[in-house]
Amino acid sequence: MIMIILKKPEYENDDYLFRLELDNIPIGEAAVDFLKRVEPSSVEYYRAKRQAFMSQDMSPLIFERFVEGKPSLRALSELPALDSTIYTVACEKENGLYYQDLIEKVKRHLTSRPATRRCVVRLVNSFDKYFCSEILEPADVTCLSFIHYLQEGPKLVFRASDVKNELLVDILTVYEFFVKPVYNSNLKDLRLSVYSSTAQNVFSWDDFTSLLKTISVEGEA
User: Fold this and answer.
1) What's residue 98's pLDDT?
2) Domain 3-213 has CATH 1.10.3470
3) Chain centre to alpha carbon of residue 21
């Protein structure tokens, strides 16, 4: 697939920026087949996360088997609910709308005002929650700050992004639940921009970009 890297991370916690074409990112079983070919170790994690997004299940128990090797899950046993990790829940909490209603409003907004620069869905937590999660007690906090929907395609802005353990699954799940439902089949000439203000495990950057460039889709589930 076409991938344009505008800024690669040079060191741990550096930022990155890249763009992808949108018309052939796989979803569902097509995404599973893709992961089986290029990164089999991510298949079950993708399935669990996708199911949690679909059902809006916030139970930490879903991800217990993935704790080892995934720093984002290090405090899992101390969390009562994953109300920020499950983005279909986080978007409701931070925007005051049910997920499906939010998607429909975004679609209508882009249709009625295609030149808008104000179609932004936020998932970012308050400073107080981020602060308390480090100083007082563990809390579930989101890595994805917001999605900016524009006529030419969406932009994802992350606070933090684990290149090795999370980014590929993030791209696949965010695309399925927050990008494709908005733009529907009008994806051919659109681009997805992805920016993160900090990146972790940057030594895996070349591997990650190689995997993305191999994406091809024969069909979607």
Assistant:
1) 98
2) no
3) 16
